[in-house]
Write a structure and sequence with these properties.
By secondary structure, the chain is an alpha/beta fold. Helix content is 28%, strand content 22%. It is built from 12 helices and 21 strands. A hairpin with a 5-residue loop joins strand 15 and strand 16. The structure holds flavin-adenine dinucleotide.
């Protein structure tokens, strides 16, 4: 079975890595792969390091929604660009990325939700995105067979889906064909620092001299940064997904209400999940950052399950070392691919919910289920910035559960920042210093 994840796939990019580069990118998820591709297109010599497999973590485990709808106003222009880039890159790669139209539709169960949706439409209009409100009758026509009658919906017809376990490895092959050195099964252990500046990276294979390093490490980013004295209040939560056996088509796009989310798959089933339901494993970072996350916990008090102990070797597990030397095994090699077991509670919740929503489907049979650790920031928008304290270090992380769709846009923006070009969008909101300079935490829309 090809999906969902690259746990047992052979290494496709064995290296070895060269001993120098213009830029080393750490982490080959959608952000790192896209940034490496565009850095190379800016004429820079790029090495992309991945401790496990390209897209082995979040970037192959997500729902595959390429969604402009509901985005933070400052993310939306980058997302509009990213949607265009997905189509362009799929053509350039010549490979099947599973891109398909169908739109994204959010169903409202209350007048309050309808008002929130209507309020967001101003941002769509400002960016020429085709989002619009729908009535109850229009929802019934769009997605026939649902047992619930909704108040209405917010819909963006130009939103798409992709199959992430196809799309991101295909992007990495495109980057490699164009000249990026991609090296899997090769952890970046530490930064090589000289005279207070980045001079390169120490990997498990040796040293790469490079004046610029970009960290796109997903759920591992804050562990890496803290070991170099850079604080970033990132946490990660487990999110569970399942794919059903083949079922009749009721709708081609992505659909979500406040409890369940589903989207059609190209194999004739549906990917289903419980929208806002997550598991948080409490570790030292969770303690340290709890106050920065209070508003999120307050807004959705029952959507997170707490666990006092995380499985061994997770980024924020109690036993995970916080400091290590470049000449010894690091936490990144101990966990090549972060592969959480799916939550049985979540599976029961959303499988039951899907079956109640579509009674004509009968009992829902699952083909497979999986989980991923979503890396989160307190305001649910990423950090796209240089590390002021360490010249030469750049950060592109904290994509907060919606980084697949925007990934190519994030990569393009980071590449231009690093190459010294204008990024083309206002990135003030994505500064690292917002968490330390007294800026009030302003969460993105929880839509
Ligand atoms: C269940 C689920 C559903 C989601 N649904 C959607 C969706 O529908 N739409 C959407 O837009 N987004 C969605 N997301 C979010 C999206 O998947 C992520 O935001 C995005 O994939 C993050 O990409 P990334 O490149 O930042 O991180 P990742 O994909 O996590 O990649 C980081 C990589 O860095 C590597 N790494 C870390 N440290 C090191 C090191 N020291 N050396 C070498 N390599 C290292 C890791 O092994 C990893 O492969 C979902 C996420 C999950 C888990």
């Amino acid at each position: 079975m090809q999906f969902p994840i690259h746990i047992a796939t052979p290494v496709a990019h064995p290296g070895p890595h060269p001993d120098s580069a213009d830029v080393v990118v750490i982490g080959a998820g959608v952000a790192g792969v896209s940034a490496a591709l565009f850095l190379n297109r800016r004429g820079l010599k790029v090495v992309l390091l991945e401790k496990g497999r390209v897209a082995g973590e979040q970037s192959s485990r997500n729902w595959g929604w390429i969604r402009q709808q509901g985005r933070d106003p400052d993310e939306l222009p980058i997302m509009v660009e990213a949607r265009r880039l997905w189509l362009q890159l799929a053509e350039e790669s010549g490979e099947d990325m599973g891109l398909a139209p169908g739109g994204v539709t959010y169903l409202a169960t209350s007048d309050k939700e309808m008002a929130q949706f209507e309020d967001w439409i101003q941002y769509a209009r400002a960016n020429d995105v085709d989002s619009h409100m729908m009535t109850t009758a229009e929802v019934d026509d769009l997605v026939p067979g649902m047992a619930t009658r909704y108040k209405g919906a917010l819909r963006t017809p130009s939103d798409m889906r992709g199959e992430p376990w196809l799309a991101v490895p295909a992007l990495a092959r495109l980057a490699a064909r164009e000249g990026v050195t991609v090296v899997e099964h090769c952890a970046a252990r530490t930064l090589d620092i000289s005279g207070g500046k980045v001079a390169g990276v120490v990997t498990e294979q040796g040293r790469i001299a490079a004046p610029q390093v970009l960290l796109t490490g997903g759920a591992w980013s804050s562990l890496f940064l803290r070991a170099h004295g850079v604080a970033m209040p990132q946490l990660s939560v487990r999110a569970t997904v399942a794919a059903t056996e083949q079922l009749p088509t009721v709708h081609e796009g992505g659909v979500a209400d406040d409890k369940i989310a589903f989207r059609r798959r190209n194999d004739g089933g549906y990917s289903i999940a419980a929208g806002g339901f997550h598991d948080l494993y409490i570790g030292p970072d969770a303690f340290r950052n709890v106050f920065k996350y209070l508003h999120v916990l307050g807004e959705h008090p029952f959507s997170t399950r707490y666990h006092l102990k995380s499985p061994a070797a997770y980024p924020d597990a109690w036993g995970t070392p916080r400091r290590w030397d470049g000449d010894r095994e690091s936490p990144f090699e101990r966990m090549r691919i972060l592969n959480p077991a799916p939550s049985k509670v979540a599976l029961k919740k959303f499988t039951g919910g899907f079956s109640r929503l579509f009674p004509e489907f009968g009992e829902i049979r699952l083909r497979t289920a999986w989980a991923g650790m979503i890396d989160l920031m307190p305001d649910t928008v990423p950090v796209l910035d240089r590390a002021e304290a360490l010249p030469g270090l750049w950060i592109g992380t904290g994509l907060s559960g919606h980084g697949f769709g925007i990934g190519p846009g994030i990569g393009r923006v980071l590449a231009d920042l690093i190459a010294g070009n204008a990024p083309g969008h206002d990135l003030t909101r994505f500064r690292l210093a917002r968490f330390s300079d007294g800026t009030p935490i302003r969460p993105g829309p929880a839509l």
